[in-house]
């Protein structure tokens, strides 16, 4: 990837038409980039700075895609918050804050700048290294698994209402046991899968590794906590081959690399509440 190459920075910074932006911090980073903050930074060829970065995605005057990395996190955070509220906000990073200009976009962007050529990757003469590309939506893998967990976190109410609580084992059964109703395909094509009798081996492994995080903290950002209604917290945890999303006052969902497109509900049982509380206490939180 292009690092702090001055020519690449100048090429992207000259008349960059900003389309969107994202934060790359320990508490909030594009999950397509990795299971944790250091991995996400490494994907972009960046050192894991304590304060993080802002990612500004746009096109130059020729229509080429660029991802400009800046160290002014607050500037990008204010812009994102304004856009989320439906307000206009001009995001124009100062040249002195630019850390790197990377060719391409690591995220899918559905819009394009007006009055410039259609989005395309810059030529090899303008960039040092291959362009960033978003993950292939048609292939299941770690990035898609993490994106699926992100979707559940954002649309918790919708996913939660699809789960029949009566299908979970009665109190006194297996703690944190998965739904035992078998596979069900939702209207969006993503399956909710029930585990076999005795518990689902993939869920057991994910929960065991999550418990291990409490005793031995994982890389920064692998467990994150964010606001949820009613005083609860939304937890996101990831590990090799698995992602977990949960509400501290409710159940959890697990997604696995080994089970493409499946969403595995995990009942609270006697142990899950304590695990979620412990994870929340050691999780990274937004400032």
TrEMBL record:
Residues 181-191 have a biased composition (Basic and acidic residues). This is Integral membrane protein. Residues 169-180 have a biased composition (Low complexity). Residues 116-142, 165-202 are annotated as: Disordered.
């Amino acid at each position: 990837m292009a690092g702090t190459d001055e020519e690449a920075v100048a090429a992207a910074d000259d008349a960059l038409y900003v389309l969107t932006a994202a934060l790359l911090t320990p508490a909030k980073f594009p999950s397509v980039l990795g299971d944790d903050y250091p991995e996400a930074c490494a994907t972009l060829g960046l050192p894991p700075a304590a304060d993080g970065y802002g990612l500004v995605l746009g096109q130059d005057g020729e229509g080429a895609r660029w991802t400009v990395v800046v160290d002014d996190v607050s500037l990008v955070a204010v812009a994102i918050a304004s856009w989320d509220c439906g307000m206009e906000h001009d995001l124009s990073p100062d040249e002195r804050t630019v850390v790197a200009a990377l060719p391409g976009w690591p995220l899918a962007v559905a819009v394009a700048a007006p009055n410039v050529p259609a989005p395309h990757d810059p030529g090899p003469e303008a960039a040092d290294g291959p362009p960033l590309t978003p993950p292939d939506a048609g292939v299941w893998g770690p990035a898609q698994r993490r994106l699926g967990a992100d979707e559940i976190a954002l649309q918790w109410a919708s996913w939660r209402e699809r789960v029949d609580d009566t299908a979970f084992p009665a109190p006194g059964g297996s703690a944190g046991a998965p739904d035992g109703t078998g596979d069900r395909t939702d209207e969006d094509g993503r399956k909710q899968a029930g585990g076999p009798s005795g518990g689902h081996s993939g869920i057991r492994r994910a929960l065991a590794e999550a418990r291990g995080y409490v005793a031995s903290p994982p890389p920064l950002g692998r467990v994150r906590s964010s606001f949820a209604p009613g005083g609860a917290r939304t937890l996101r945890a990831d590990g090799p081959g698995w992602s977990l999303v949960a509400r501290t006052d409710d159940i959890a969902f697990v997604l696995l690399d080994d089970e493409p497109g499946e969403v595995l509900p995990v009942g609270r049982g006697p142990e899950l509440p304590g695990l979620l509380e412990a994870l929340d206490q050691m999780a990274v939180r937004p400032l």
